[in-house]
Amino acid sequence: MASNSAIERDARKNGARRYCRTLGLNVPALPAIRPTRFISAVAFVAILGLLGCSQQRELAPGQIWGYDNRPGEGASTIQILHIQRGTPLGDVYFVSVRALDVKRIGRRTIRTTEIWPLVFTHDALARSVGTYQWSQTVDRPYLKQLDFWLREARDGRAADRTFSVPVKEALNEIESDRPDAEQRLFEGIS
Q1: Average of pLDDT values for 91-110?
Q2: Among residues 54, 74, 89, which one ends one of the domains?
Q3: For residue 98, which of 76, 69, 130 has the smallest C-alpha distance?
Q4: pLDDT tens-digit profile of 47-96?
Q5: What is the DSSP string of 27-85?
Q6: 15 lies in which domain range?
Q7: Distances (CA, A) of 10 to 7, 13, 17, 19, 29
Q8: Do 104 and 77 share a structural domain?
Q9: Has residue 187 been placed in a domain?
Q10: pTM of the model
Q11: Residue 169 has pLDDT above 90, yes or no
Q12: Which of 19, 70, 76, 173 is most solvent-facing, going by the fewest CB within 10 Å?
């Protein structure tokens, strides 16, 4: 009687199907799956691609982002005007919020569709942004407000001029006539 390996070899040569005896049944045996280097390389590239797709784009000046906005402001977007790095609050972002339906700013009754510049901490802005839309050149003159904010930061008042809540909450604070929100606006600086 021939050994099992000799029988298997003969069966392969003759094209016969191998069977595996499992639980008393003769079941066709599946060939062992042996990944080749090519398959391994393709799998590695696919995994890297999936990891790359899940990473969020780094925030940069000029970018327009969708964000978690308020009801009725579905088209509202944020444009990053400037990033000030290494402040006492970490990186802070000067932004413009567009396509709003704001009825009042602080104590003034006014109807506006854009508020700028507003300053947010990195954490607050990261909690707000959703989908990246596009980039365009920053065309807002924000340098006087930036200089004012830097002076305030040197005097230890950076937190008084910076929102640490998501954009949606900051807009609600601005409309609610809260004094702490009002001082975060750069009114009278032009």
Answers
A1: 77
A2: 54
A3: 76
A4: 555 554 434 579 999 999 999 888 888 889 999 999 999 999 999 999 99
A5: EEPPPPP---HHHHHHHHHHHHHHHHHHSPPPP-TTEEEEE---TT-TT-EEEEEEEEE
A6: 4-54
A7: 5, 5, 11, 14, 16
A8: yes
A9: no
A10: 0.66
A11: yes
A12: 19
Q: How many CB atoms lie within 10 A of CB 146?
A: 17
87 and 168 share one domain: yes
In-domain check, residue 190: no
If one counts the domains in the chain, the total is 2
Fill in the amino acid letter for 56. Q
Band (pLDDT 50/70/90 cuts) for residue 27 is: low
48 and 26 assigned to the same domain: yes
